[in-house]
Amino acid sequence: MKNLVIMTALVLSLLFAAACAKEGRQASATSSKPEFRHDANLQIEDASGALRAEFRIEIAKTEREVMDGLKNREQMDPDHGMLFIFEHLDYHSFWMQDTYLSLDMIFINHENEVVHIEENTTPFSEDPIFPSRPNLYVLEVLAGTVQRLNIKESDIVKWQTLEDL
User: Rounded CA gap, 40 and 32, in Å?
Assistant: First the structure.
């Protein structure tokens, strides 16, 4: 009888330990920081067609992806960016809630022309960032990128998804 009690206690202890380990793995998986997803390659050209910049981009097009954006990301490589794709041309505005990184935001119209640039955004700010002209796309890159690469309004943006390559 004593052996049965000990055996039962041992089995219950093992089951409890396994359940705790599984719960710990699930909690760490859901609390982990988002990883960069390389969906496409993007180029920015000046009016003459000369290449100004190239980026590896993650594309945010679903409502959830657009809402999350670069929130909770603590780092991003200088050649990475996130491109937001909207369904309609409008004055799509942004804010920096839960965003650790200072960013440059490049607002792009339906003709793939840069129409507004917002440089050096303030991390965690809930102040809205309004473009001066309607946009269909927004490219977010690390702060200082626009100045470093001399990106200007009227530049042209092109991208190709990895599926199209």
Answer: 24
